[in-house]
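[step 3/7] fold_predict: job queued, chain A
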Amino acid sequence: MKLISGKIVTCCPMNPIPEIQGLLKDEMVVFETKFKEAVKSQVSLLDRIMHYIIRRKGKQVRPMFVFLSAKMFKPVNDSTYRAAALVELLHTATLVHDDVVDEANTRRGFFSINALWKNKIAVLVGDYLLSKGLLLSLENDDFEILKILSRAVKQMSEGELLQMEKSRTLNLNEDIYFEIIKNKTASLLASSCSAGAWSVTQNSDYAEKMRLFGEMAGIAFQIKDDLFDYGQANVGKPTGNDIREKKMTLPLIFTLNKVSSSRKKELIYLVKNKNKDKAAVAAILEEVNSAGGISYAAEKMYQYRDSALKVLSSMPENEYREGLAQLVRFTTERKY
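[step 4/7] structure written:
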């Protein structure tokens, strides 16, 4: 355990995902079948790629958020399954497109689609997944759920483009940082929770509260991911990788705003021009640590986590609400 601003925080919480998978066992089995059906194609090449995508799928945390957000209110229905499938289709499409943009050859330990089938096919596969998601909702009159998720796709694109724009000059303050991660990272999780609640309640107040819950949980998740770049834990990416990619994360933004103007210029120069130099990256990491950037970011992360849990506490009390709370707590305490 550790003490942060008077709060005792557990360092190594148990991973709640296996327990939650058990809680949603029946729903996830049905979901797997429905998702496979949703991506079927009459084009043999597409079918082979879809089979590959299904084989390499992750933990499917976002569909879990959909189901938990629904079951907290009422039993799931066909609309809930379609919402979960739409979330997974959109998420997968964005990952396929991201790998093309980032020229990434691997994803979750597997070869990326663009590495195996080249960029043109990968872009078309992403487009196919997006269109299948749209049709899944439209053909079943899930207009409100489609509206909820379409907003997320718009926000994700805006967040990514804003980050690219600001990374050219490294002209990024804290407000812009939060706008970027709210749009780029948190919007899909927020929409997952909102769509799940709407699918069983058709209540706009519940849907909005769950959207807000998901947004704050998503922001906390991203800050935690940023913090990994300044630690020594094995998290699947090298320490200092964000700096090498010239990404302005919260610990670095705080540090740049705290040091003298001359030191700020020196640090920005290092990030811009020496971001591949190990000694320079190490110097930036040390500066961020000594300036208090890491502890500041951690404090912000816990504030967003606590705000998410506060919203959640106003929802019906049951095992599904507790499952959502466990996921949020695990998000901020995970070691990977």
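[step 5/7] annotate
The chain has a mean pLDDT of 86.
The chain has one domain: 2-333.
exit 0
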